[in-house]
Specification:
Elements lengths: L16 E8 L13 H16 L8 E5 L3 H5 L5 H5 L10 E4 L5 H14 L5 E8 L6 H8 L15 H16 L4 H15 L26 E3 L2 E2 L9 E8 L1 H11 L7 E10 L4 H7 L8 H14 L9 E3 L5 H10 L9 H5 L16 H5 L6 H13 L13 E8 L4 E9 L1
Parallel strand pairs: 2-3, 2-4, 9-10
Antiparallel strand pairs: 1-7, 1-8, 4-7, 5-6, 8-11, 10-11
Helix pairs in contact: 4-14, 7-11
Length: 422
Amino acid sequence: MTTSPRVAPRDRALPPVFVLGGHQTDFARNVTREGKGLVDLIGEATTLALAHTGVLAREVEVGHVGSFIPELYTGQSHLGGLVAEVHPDLAGIPITRHEAACASGGVAVLAAMADLQAGRYDVALVVGVELMRVLPGFESQQKLGAAAWVPRETEGVAYPWPELFSHVAEEYDRRYGLRREHLAALARNNYENALKNPNAQTRKWTLSEAALAEDDKENPVIAGRTRRYDASPVTDGAACVVLASAEYAAEWARRRGVPFEGLGRIEGYGHRTARMSMKDKLEGSRGEPYVFPHVRGAVLDAFSRARIEGPSALSAVEVHDCFTISHYMGIDHFGIAPAGEPFRVIEDGTVLRGGKLPVNPGGGLMGIGHPVGATGVRMLLDAQKQVTGEAGENQVPGAKRVATLNIGGSATTAVVLVVGRA
């Protein structure tokens, strides 16, 4: 069975969607220890996103929230109502919550884009949020198993995701060969990039070389081929972006005294959903060049809609490195190297800091943190900062176009965005 792309994206002209800016909370915080909760994370991200952009709450016409399992972590559902609590002028607007596991933020962005492109609204607020450190680490990992096929993939499994992504590493090794040193290089690059990111969870971490090696004391095995520092941490956090139509963005730029041509905009997108279980996906792609053909399809859809030929048109990439092997997979599926051979662009430094096409310049999920519902929104915000020159010490010089890959579950959901300048 094949899951290869079957239909090319429609080429009908859609109105552009502009990213005016936003805010990310400090992902190093333990919000529960502060005596705070979901409403505080949502409130902080939203309030500061509006303040950063200068958009008034009364100008926001629609809201979308991405969050995976707040019900299991905190008992709280119906998060749209919490956004309405942030400011009196947000009460009464339509606000919808979206869930697609770790791609919840990505699908919330897509829903907001659809609202704007349909001409229903001119200004949309997108919030991604997750509060995860309220539970002990093991219990938190167990809850995350809800994004797998329950109980088929989770029964009797202590750490579902380290186990399932270990199978991806095994599949790469079976098809193309896989060396530990290449995964370690990606981990090292993420953690080093995060040292320069003021909102990164690991910015104050000090890791020895043993922590990135096959050292059972410093870097113990969690499951299969997955070791401790192959995995992204459990994180509390929120990110918020303000999206706008061309008409509103032009007026916004005029009143802010900034050039319209310098605004960030979403040039293309891809969104695909595959079968639920990891085993079915891996077996279904045997004999094909890509381990996850639907992810490759989402990338090609985004490239097509953005009217670009491939990764040579990009300045940087944000990939969903929940594990080092998903980072490796992301490099592969963007076509930065020949299929199955990401090691080539790791060895020559292309995808590392200072390389021709840096991947995860801000630290990725491993370095920045991974509050699962917020990640897709955070990626979009970081892409917007790159193309507008606002990424601080993580800035890729002269960045003009950045792509993001946000996946949910065992890559069951894939959301790809291409962000450029207006």
